[in-house]
């Protein structure tokens, strides 16, 4: 970064600080990951200079021959990876991917049935402060109070009662396998479109570790940067019959020029996701999440639904006499990064919460396995027990630094000096 250092030492410093933060902290935010150097190189390339409104070979501006190749590769690789008929790789984010799908499937004020935020849903799944909640009539489903898992009979009842035009499956804080076949059957009975937001589990789906929604859903949206481990961005999958409408809704409907450097990086990530190493990585992500549940349960923590089938787990802190906000702040003191999270039927507000959400995608990318996960669970337990003991928290932080030091973010760079 020698040019940046000369031209803008302040931003150079910000990036150096962030590199150190990522190196020195245990990143347990379930939606984060570390993209490969190849993805970073593509994303940091001159493709950022190019405007390319339109789609490959049908652009509004000249000079698009090479960015056309990048977008075509991204589309073809995503189609191959997810066995998809149609893919649009231009959405700048998952939120915009979801917006294009809503605009394609629905008229304003029509009814959607989607998962409640407090039970694991996402803001774009009908939250009143998001476009999805402002433009549409939202009916929410949650989880069963006892099992804390999706209750498909209950979802079917709601679908038949409210006759939504669209049913949305997928979540940000739900750790169990989702039965897309059952969702399809419910949607068919209710005469609704099925829309799956697979942003969190896209990497698991790509690797065949979680059943794919493609084939069951009319629309699938995703981000590229969570378990899929690509650049920050979104994409949409659907059947060919929606291709023209979705294309024109993404551009010119809700976006201008596509981010060609990001699209090139998405192409790299889709190629990486086809490899044997990626499949092994995703298997380890889930093994690590299961180990995390077991280790935390052994220390007396309550895990929502009792376990996980994915990369994430939701910890109910109620019995440990600490709320999510305090736990997040406390763990930060020991260089452990987590996010506070509502748990199903939470009695506390969204800004306090009774839980924390933990994910294993990022630490697994660093090479950590079950042994290290057990150690991390121990750090969390000790931090919670010693919340008023600064010396012990400092000791845990030192142990975290010992651990992160053994698992560099980009070992290739270290080996190159
Ligand atoms: N912010 C993401 C998450 O943490 O799940 C969802 O968009």
Description:
The chain folds into two domains: 40-272, 3-Layer(aba) Sandwich (Aspartate Aminotransferase, domain 2), CATH 3.40.640; 279-408, Aspartate Aminotransferase, domain 1, CATH 3.90.1150.10. Helices cover 46% and strands 13% of the residues. The chain has helices spanning 2-7, 9-24, 37-43, 65-82, 94-105, 131-135, 152-162, 180-190, 202-206, 243-254, 260-272, 276-298, 324-333, 361-365, 370-385, 390-406, 411-415, and strands spanning 26-27, 54-55, 58-59, 86-88, 111-115, 137-141, 166-169, 193-197, 219-223, 234-238, 302-303, 312-316, 336-337, 339-341, 355-359. The protein has a seven-stranded mixed β-sheet, sandwiched between helices. α4 packs parallel to α11 (260-272) and α7 (152-162) runs parallel beside α8. The mean pLDDT is 97. D-serine (DSN) is lined by residues 31, 94, 122, 172.
Number of helices: 17
* Spatial shape: globular
Rg of Cα set: 22 Å
The biggest beta sheet is recorded as: 7 strands, mixed
Please indicate the count of domains.
Answer: 2
Q: What's the pLDDT, averaged over the residues?
A: 97
Briefly say what this structure is.
With 417 residues, the protein is α/β, with parallel strands linked by helices.
Tell me the layout of helices and strands.
Elements: H1 2-7, H2 9-24, E1 26-27, H3 37-43, E2 54-55, E3 58-59, H4 65-82, E4 86-88, H5 94-105, E5 111-115, H6 131-135, E6 137-141, H7 152-162, E7 166-169, H8 180-190, E8 193-197, H9 202-206, E9 219-223, E10 234-238, H10 243-254, H11 260-272, H12 276-298, E11 302-303, E12 312-316, H13 324-333, E13 336-337, E14 339-341, E15 355-359, H14 361-365, H15 370-385, H16 390-406, H17 411-415
Parallel strand pairs: 1-13, 5-6, 5-7, 7-8, 8-9
Antiparallel strand pairs: 2-3, 4-10, 9-10, 11-12, 12-15, 14-15
């Amino acid at each position: 970064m020698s040019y940046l250092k000369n031209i803008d030492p302040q931003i150079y410093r910000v990036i150096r600080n962030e590199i150190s933060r990522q190196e020195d902290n245990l990143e347990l935010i379930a939606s984060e990951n570390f993209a490969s150097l190849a993805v970073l190189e593509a994303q940091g390339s001159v493709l950022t200079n190019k405007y390319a409104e339109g789609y490959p070979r049908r652009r509004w501006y000249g000079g698009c021959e090479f960015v056309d190749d990048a977008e075509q590769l991204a589309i073809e690789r995503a189609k191959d990876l997810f066995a998809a008929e149609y893919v649009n790789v231009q959405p700048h984010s998952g939120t915009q991917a979801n917006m294009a799908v809503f605009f394609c499937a629905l008229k304003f004020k029509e009814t959607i049935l989607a998962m409640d935020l407090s039970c694991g849903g996402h803001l774009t799944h009908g939250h009143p402060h998001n476009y999805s909640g402002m433009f549409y009539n939202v009916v929410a489903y949650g989880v069963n109070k006892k099992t804390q898992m999706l209750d498909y009979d209950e979802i079917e009842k709601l679908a038949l009662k409210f006759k939504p035009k669209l049913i949305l499956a997928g979540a940000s804080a739900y750790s169990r396998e989702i039965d897309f076949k059952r969702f399809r059957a419910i949607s068919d009975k209710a005469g609704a479109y099925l829309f799956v937001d697979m942003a969190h589990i896209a990497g698991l789906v790509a690797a065949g570790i979680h059943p794919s929604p493609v084939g069951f859903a009319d629309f699938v949206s995703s981000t590229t940067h969570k378990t899929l481990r690509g650049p920050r961005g979104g994409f949409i999958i659907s059947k060919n019959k929606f291709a023209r409408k979705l294309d024109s809704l993404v551009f010119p409907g809700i976006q201008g020029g596509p981010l060609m450097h990001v699209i090139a990086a998405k192409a790299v990530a889709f190629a990486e996701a086809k490899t044997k190493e990626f499949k092994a990585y995703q298997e380890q992500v889930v093994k690590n999440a299961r180990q995390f549940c077991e280790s935390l349960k052994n220390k007396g923590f309550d895990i929502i639904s009792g376990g996980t089938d994915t990369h994430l787990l939701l910890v109910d802190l109620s019995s440990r006499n600490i709320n999510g906000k305090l736990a997040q702040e406390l763990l930060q003191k020991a260089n452990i990064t987590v996010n506070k999270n509502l748990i199903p039927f939470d009695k506390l507000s969204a800004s306090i919460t009774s839980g924390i959400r933990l994910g294993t995608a990022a630490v697994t990318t660093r090479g950590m396995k079950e042994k290290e996960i057990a150690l991390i669970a121990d750090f969390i337990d000790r931090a919670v027990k010693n919340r008023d003991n600064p010396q012990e928290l400092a000791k845990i932080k030192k142990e975290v630094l010992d651990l992160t030091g053994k698992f560099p973010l980009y070992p290739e760079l270290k080996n190159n000096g």
